[in-house]
User: What shape does this take?
Amino acid sequence: MVPELGNFALALACTIAFAQAALPLWGAHRRDARLMAAAPALAVGQLVALCVAAGALVWSAVVSDFTVLNVVQNSASDKPLLYKITGTWGDHEGSLLLWALILGLCGGAVAVFGRPLPSALRARVLGVLGAVSAGFLFFAVTASNPFLRIWPPPAQGLGMDPLLQDPGLAFHPPILYAGYVGFAVPFAFAVAALLEGRVDAAWARWVRPWALASWCFLTCGIALGSWWAYYELGWGGFWFWDPVENASLMPWLTGTALLHCALVVEKREALKVWTVLLAIATFSLSLAGTFLVRSGILNSVHAFATDPTRGVFILVLLGVTICGSLLLFAVRAPGLVCGGLFAPLSREGALVLNNVLLCSICAVVVTGTLYPLIVNLLFGVQLSVGAPFFDMTVIPLSIPLFAAMSVGPMLAWKRAELVPALLRLWWAALGAALVALVGALHWRALPAVAFAGSAWLILGAIANIAERIRLFRLPLSGCLARLGGVPRGAWGATVAHAGLGITIAGIAGMSFATYSIALLHPGKSVQEAGYTWTLLSLANLPGPDFNARQATLQISRNGNVIATLNPERRFFPIQDITTMDTAIHTDGLADLYAVLGDERDGGAVIRVHHNPLAPWIWLGALVMAIGGALSLSDRRLRIGAPARGKVPVPA
Amino acid sequence: MTRKRRRLWIVLACGLGVGSAAALVLSAFSSSLVFFLTPTDLAARPPAPNQIFRLGGLVQQGSLQKAVLDGSPDTRFRVTDGKASVEVTYVGILPDLFREGQGVVAIGRLAPGGTFHASEVLAKHDAAYMPKNVAEALERRGLWNPASGSPPPASTWNDLTRSTAAKTRQGS
Assistant: This one.
């Protein structure tokens, strides 16, 4: 009964989405107020229907209704409750429903918080969101229905991929999807602006919070995925330049460019056409990223929930969305009025440089990700583009980006002088130079450059705030008084830039990571990175739906016990799969990381890693997201929209 | 600063960005592409010594040997694509999903004796995974048609003929 209700709700949502796509767009075209007014109601209705559908699927999974194919394939009755719930988005059908639900939430949020918007613009934005939603819901209803029944029902489900039974990954898809799908709103605004033929500061003030919120979610989502790969896959690395990872990085890069570019439209009404194009590109890359990997066209070692048979539909949908919006752009963009003028050396100029570099990096990543596919199609040669390619291309392009990142915020709008800006940064430059000097003496060149870049970003961020409060130029009380007056947007930018510095320091630290592999018998030990790792015992340990083999590993340094690690190997009988559960001890500056391998000759194969500064990678990403959130809470973002306009935050 | 001048600056900046990106891509392509080879490719066109490449195929049934050499775990197995097979040695912890009869991709180089020294071994997370080129090789030899259902069990791959392939299909 409940699955049928869900199925009905899904079909209803699909119908509403089609109506939401057609009526408001037609109404806005004909200036029919009644049709335009239907948009918010339809958006909210679609959201309610999608909530019912998702609720029905979760309910079926929680009560282990094995007449539902999706539940049989992804769940088992002895699975912990958390994973029963999160398992609903672990496969293709369920993840598509989650995707549609988040898109529905975005539509609902625009409908509710968008009341101050001009009614035609709101109708068009909701119409475009409805059209995107309609395409995917139609796909869900016809080809990827999560409510399909199976008869006779099996006594037990097939269970979930044990690698996915992890809190980090349980929340990774919703957060990542919130990021991907959130960019649908800037996209909808861009298409609506093209339809209206008008882009102004008020438009940018609406686009920027959405881009910012989506960017925060995407940053968190990527970091969570990378963290999961680090501790769950047990390879000891955090980023593998795999197509799945690149797919999430591409919209992040253009999304970052979009954030900065929208700032220029908002402040100076310049770069409008470019901002519209970036909004389209970011959402297109989000779509392409989610679905190129999902459709099985790009081969990835760690993609889940792929289904090549349905790839064609997705490709068509992708093609229609991307080509349609680009065609509209080509026809309508020349009509957009150009805005304010600026000198090449100005805040705007710096933001243009930021955009050029970010988009170049994105182009490189796209090339490296798609090249194997293209070569295979054209020449039938199978090859792969791995980390060396991306290291050789992305790093040289990042260096000028990082160099400009600290200078940019110091420049004035419209026209600026480079020398005074650099003079204000002299101590940040000195700090970075000192780090580079120390690094050049002790380390290899690349980590030295990376650490210097990190110091430059963090010190540059501090210098930016110091400059705003006139530190050391006013008496201390005056500085403190000014500190309260620094707008949150400026704090946000500063914190986010410093966060990137922290991440870069973490990545640079990881280049000093060392590991060793040893076959240890209980009581024996291995030396690594100045620590003594002693295997104390091996034991069997029962779990809820697995049996674990657990090693107890004691780490000591100069005779002092520092930590005890318990790496495990878990055997899941339902799926007949063994997974490795790594154990990590961190002191904030370095991770001690142990993996238990197979056992032979009465001993166990143990791999131990010493990963300096590893936690900083994800800490930095978190700081970046906090910076984004701070900026999002800035009052100035809400000005322009009358008092009622709260900052819309996608759920 | 006129509109035209500004446009010129922006075009110059874009040109510089795109140009340097293209130059970097081309130079990286010339040195860092990693080819994907199957055991059959390897037999037909052996790569230059010390060239790093990816070896893909299935772990041959019954070929996995685990030993201990000087205190470090040494694993040997054969990778097959149904036509030819290559011996692989690997020091380290095998991935979770590594097992006989399943798809595997090994990254490394060929030693003079014809043994592949893997520096990294990847197994597909998805248990039903079959490397794309293995599927193609099977199809080419007429042993498996993807339209007719799941592939024949990997343990039979090395001595699979058309008639046994048809039989296992009917049986399953």
